[in-house]
Amino acid sequence: MKRRIYRQILSGVLGILLLLSLAGCGQTNAIAKPDKTMEAFYDLIIRQDTSAMTDLGIDSKESKETLKTYQSSMVSTIQKSFKDAGVAITKSQAKDIFKAISKKLASLEYKVSVVKKNDKESTVKVSSQYINYLDIFKQAKQTTLDELKPLHIEKLSDAKKQLVSNVIDSFNSAPVSNDMHDKTFTLNLQKIKSGKNTIRIFFPEKYEEVGSKLTEIVTNQ
User: Fold this and answer.
1) Secretion signal: which residues (predicted)?
2) Using CB atoms within 10 A of its CB, is residue 138 exposed (0-12), middle (13-18) or buried (19+)?
């Protein structure tokens, strides 16, 4: 169950950033620094925060809609992953699990640095603390199995509730790493249409991989 859940969560990230990638024409703002772009992506995907995207010049409504779509996708993915593993949970329970995961990931410290840069291209390194994502699910599963007899849990519905509760508790109490993992990203100077304006911005060359790569960093994969 653990690895299947992780893989499907990664796949749910990939298509979400498409909403921010439309090229066009119009008012052009000052060029944002490439490290600011990657900070904005990290905040959006890992911290569920759109403010850095807005600071780049991305339309606020567009950013919020992107985040809302991402969150909805992740909740559905969590629910489906549990079902595929033989443990059907409700949408409300999936939301609670997603909230616990998001809260823990939002507590991680990170930093972004420019490795090299010219007028058209930049290489940026993102470093972040992480949690042992798969171990957390493993711990919750084992805790639930250990509790079935002592707590006299005999109904399947009660066992599911206990598993969900233990997953949430495990994420809430999970320690974060003392060190950091990092990945590098190549960004190209592009024109991005957002709302009524077009901004010149250093944007990831393979933006469809950004979500999965950032998720790999923070989940120790």
Assistant:
1) 1-32
2) middle
